[in-house]
Amino acid sequence: MIRHYTEIYRQETLSRFSMEFAGFRSAVMTELRFSTTAHYTSDGLMMIKQENGQAVVQTASGSAVELVFHLIERVEIKQMGPFSGGTITLSGDDEENIRATVVFDGLMVICERLFYRHRPEWQPGRFSRLRGEIPTPEAIEAYLQDDDWRECSECAEAWFDPEEFSYCPECGSLTQLYVDG
Q1: Do 108 and 25 share a structural domain?
Q2: Is 36 within the bounds of a domain?
Q3: Phi, psi at 145, each rounded to 5°
Q4: Residue 60 to residues 69, 126, 150: CA-CA distances in angstroms?
């Protein structure tokens, strides 16, 4: 579980999200990014897989919400933004097989897990809000040391990185910065 994020995995959490962000249907996606992996098969075909994604959505009231798409199964982009008019639906027969579908005009993302985080400090502006690595539930803790140095909880490697999420240069684990208190 990634701290400070709420997973939308059943109707109750979707209803809570809908109440918290009542203007989501008239919202505009202001930022979108994906992480992908690619490799060549033995017969020379390139295989590309969208793994995770992240978006910033501004509601009509000026409130911002960060969406995190984990284990993406499908992405359809029919136009190059702006993407507006957001909806989220859940499908599947049990909690183990739930899929979230996020649709905006010209964009659809289907993923196995969907998380959100209210970002009231992210007011509309001309600069990017998404920095560092895309959050995932597999992130482990990194402990804050002095002056934005962090220590990996897996291997005890220490490195400088002020971002909330960062890969450990020693063991390769994605870490989330943990600040005590």
Answers
A1: yes
A2: yes
A3: -105, -155
A4: 22, 17, 37
Q: Are residues 153 and 70 in the same domain?
A: no
Instruction: Give the chain's domain count.
Output: 2
What's the token pair of residue 102? 């996020």
Separation of alpha carbons 87 and 107, rounded Å: 11
pLDDT tens digits along 100-147:
999 999 999 999 999 999 988 887 766 668 887 899 999 999 999 988
> Measured between alpha carbons, how far is 116 from 56 in angstroms, rounded to an integer?
10
In a shared domain, residues 171 and 91: no
Residue by residue, DSSP assigns 21-53 as: TTTGGG-EEEEEEEEEEEEE-TTS-EEEEEEEE
Residue 92 lies in a domain: yes
One domain, residues 33 and 98: yes
Query: Of 18-27, 40-49, 54-63, 133-142, where does mean pLDDT reach its minimum?
Result: 40-49
Burial of 105 (0-12, 13-18, 19+ CB in 10 A): middle
